[in-house]
Design a protein that fits this description.
The chain has about 90 residues and is mainly α. The protein has one domain: Monooxygenase, CATH 1.20.1280. It contains 4 helices and no strands. Helix 2 packs parallel to helix 4 and helix 3 packs antiparallel against helix 4. The protein is elongated and about 55 Å long.
Length: about 90
């Protein structure tokens, strides 16, 4: 296995798991304070564009990274909206 491939898969793993602490914190604290929905939305759009690019250049590690990032970002945005709506109703 080449160094480039190892680095690609390592980056794929790290970029994927980086969303887990934010999802966990948001669910635990039931607060979206300090978390920007616009940041999540822009990241989501950027990952769609990057997935398109990775597909065009046929890079499997990047394709998997961007697909997983889209799934985790979708989950982050869903949690954000759920908690934001619940907090909005209680105030």
């Amino acid at each position: 296995m080449s160094l480039a491939l190892v680095l690609g898969w390592t980056a794929t793993f790290l970029f994927t798991v980086c969303y887990i602490p934010q999802i966990y914190k948001t669910l635990k604290t039931k607060s979206v304070e300090g978390l920007s929905f616009w940041l999540l939305l822009i990241q989501f759009i950027a990952n769609i564009v990057a997935l398109w690019y990775a597909t065009l250049i046929n890079q499997a590690p990047l394709q998997i990274k961007y697909i997983l990032a889209l799934l985790f970002l979708f989950l982050c945005m869903a949690v954000y909206i759920k908690i934001w709506r619940r907090n909005k109703r209680t105030t």
